Write a sequence for this structure.
């Protein structure tokens, strides 16, 4: 089902890009490749009746979730705005990504193709920086600016990535903890309780920062209320968090972190099920769309999550139809949304500025915590996606 969804999304995006005079690659249909060749040959050339033109190659992490479609939509909208302001087709883009965020080798091939297109700038959300290292260095040697987006390009060679368009993921994890703690703090203190966290991986900087932001802030909040905390589970998160103290048996609150062997909703559901089946669990957090949907999937069998007393309070991260429906019906208490459309818009602005030799800097694209009480508000709704 996931593969079929990815292919449908890719096909939809391909038709949209052809209509807009752009192209797609990676998991998208090859029908758009002629458009890409045309755009690439026009890069940095003189447009008829206008001035210099610029072409951007954008390599995302994948098409496996609607999150990336929302990023694309933002990029497309900003590209159209800039071209409208310029009075001619000044900018073009080719937006690609693998079918799954586990397909590192596919992304390496896509980045190599992007580099070979000799664009004026490249947008990159890296799955594995080490796997892309040679190509990143080649882009730097060719003086092609790289702009990171979403999780960006952590630990890239110095000077190779000029700026990032992304959520401050550590701050976003803290926002999730703040939203959850307000709901559960009255249930803490009478007996030992457990708070679960499901992260789709322990390697991506966006996921690890978000997961650690949640843990560190939760520890801070608990200690401020004179509770002791013990963190257990995945070694990366246990070893990198701040403030876990004492022994598990003596802790007022256990924070348990679980990570699946691969990035799939089904495997995240398995990890979530382990936590949800424990009698002392009072809350659980899924740190991205895949992990949050894993919690929802696990609960379809267990039926233990809800917003009322006696239920496990579940929160998620990101948006999408499944998460929004779960928040609306109360199965999931709330979630943190990034602003993926805004990420796409800021990415295009940074690419355009860097291609034209202007100074660029990291830009935080923000986040918000939403529940069924404010999900329909204008402030929140503009940041949600399907």
């Amino acid at each position: 089902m996931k593969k079929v969804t990815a292919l449908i999304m890719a096909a939809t995006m391909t038709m949209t890009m052809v209509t807009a005079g752009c192209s797609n690659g990676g998991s998208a249909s090859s029908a758009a490749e002629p458009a890409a060749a045309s755009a690439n040959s026009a890069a940095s050339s003189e447009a008829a009746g206008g001035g210099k033109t610029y072409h951007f190659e954008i390599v995302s992490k994948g098409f496996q979730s609607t999150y990336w479609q929302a990023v694309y939509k933002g990029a497309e909208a900003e590209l159209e705005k800039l071209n409208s302001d310029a009075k001619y087709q000044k900018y073009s883009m080719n937006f690609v990504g693998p079918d799954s965020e586990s397909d590192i080798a596919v992304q390496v091939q896509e980045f190599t193709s992007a580099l070979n297109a000799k664009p004026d700038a490249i947008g990159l959300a890296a799955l594995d920086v080490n796997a892309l290292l040679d190509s990143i260095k080649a882009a730097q040697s060719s003086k092609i600016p790289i702009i990171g987006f979403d999780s960006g390009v952590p630990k890239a060679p110095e000077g190779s990535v000029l700026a990032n368009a992304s959520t401050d993921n550590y701050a976003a994890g803290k926002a999730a903890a703040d939203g959850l703690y307000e709901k559960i703090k009255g249930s803490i203190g009478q007996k030992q309780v457990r708070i679960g966290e499901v992260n789709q991986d322990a390697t991506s900087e966006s996921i690890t920062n978000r997961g650690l932001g949640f843990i560190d802030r939760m520890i801070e909040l608990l200690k401020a209320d004179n509770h002791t905390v013990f963190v257990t589970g995945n070694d990366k998160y246990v070893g990198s968090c701040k403030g876990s103290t004492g022994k598990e048996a003596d802790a007022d609150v256990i924070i348990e972190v679980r990570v699946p062997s691969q990035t799939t909703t089904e495997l995240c559901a398995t990890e979530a099920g382990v936590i949800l089946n424990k009698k002392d669990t009072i809350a659980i957090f899924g740190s991205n769309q895949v992990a949050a949907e894993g919690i929802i999937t696990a609960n379809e069998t267990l039926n233990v999550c809800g917003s009322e007393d006696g239920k496990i309070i579940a929160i998620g991260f990101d948006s999408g139809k499944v998460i929004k429906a779960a928040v609306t019906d109360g199965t999931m208490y709330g979630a943190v949304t990034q602003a993926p459309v805004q990420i796409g818009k800021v990415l295009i602005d940074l690419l355009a500025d860097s291609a034209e030799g202007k100074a660029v800097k990291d830009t935080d694209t923000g986040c918000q915590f939403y529940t069924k009480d404010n999900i329909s508000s204008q402030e929140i709704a503009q940041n949600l996606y399907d």
